[in-house]
Every structure is written in C-alpha cells, then in structure tokens.
Design a protein that fits this description.
By secondary structure, the chain is α/β, with parallel strands linked by helices. Helix content is 39%, strand content 18%.
Amino acid sequence: IQKGRITIDGIDIREIDKDRLRSAIGQVQQDVFIFTGDISSNIRLRREDITDEDIVRAAKHVNADDFISRLPGGYHEPVTEGEALIGGAEAAFIFCEEATANIDTETELLIQEALEKLMQGRTTIMVAHRLSTIQHADKIIVMHKGEVREVGTHQELLLADGIYKKLYEPSYMQSKFKN
C-alpha cells in the first residue's frame, strides 16, 4: 500500500496476519496454471482435508462436473502443466482477472453462471473488458489511464452517459472492431 489503506470489515489489512489473509483469497485468472497430476489433485491443491465428495460438490457448483465426468478418467484424468482449471472455490475473497476472455459465447455463459455461484457470500474483485461479465455487479469501477473515472451499478453508469455507456453501446464496439 503506497498511500491510504485497504480495509476488510473496517480492519486495516496491515493488522491481519498475512498467512490468514492469503488463505482467504482465491483467484480466477485469464491464464490459469495446472499442476501435473489429475483433475482431483488440482482441485484439492494439496489440502488433504478436502474430501472426494467436496471435490465433486465444488465441480458441480462451478458447472465442471459434467465435463469432468465425461473424461475417460473422470476426476482421475491425468493433466499436465499448462492446462486450465478454476481454483479458489473455498476462499472468502475472489479476484477474477479476465475470467471470460478468449472463449466462445456458450462457454462464457457457463463460466458466468459458475462465477455467480462462486461469488455468493464473497467479496469479489473482477477485472473485465467484457461488460457482460460485470453487469450484475453491486459496484462497477471504470478505470481509464490508471484513474478511477466512474463508479456505480450497471444501470447507474448507463444513465450517467459516460465511458461505461460508450463501451456498452454496440455501435461503439462495432466501430472498434472495424478499425
């Protein structure tokens, strides 16, 4: 923190034990890393207290069970480094970095549904360029050139007729792709 402070429930994070704080944070990144092993071990992430039933429940929660169950080895299907997986399902805070970037529309809808479930009861910070990913957020912060330019809900930002609305308008998006 360079200036100001970051608080969780009014407590400055500098006053919270770092290990405790870090264990409460999960990430969903655009480029997610997988460890060599199997699907099950990647969901478990070396936490022996997570049961096989917990793994299946978490996979069902994020719409992955159907896909995993169709793999030849199911949850024991071997995977290698560099493949994709969504992790951090038990965290109190979720950070999503372009979670729906570079995917088709059908997959985006599945991920959005999974993210909605994953975000329930959690504080979520989501970095997104696809506005469909964030339009149901409680608060949207529009940044431009490193500065906060607008803050509000989807509807409030559309009514404000600013940067967010311009990004949301189909004519703007079409002109961006033509040039």
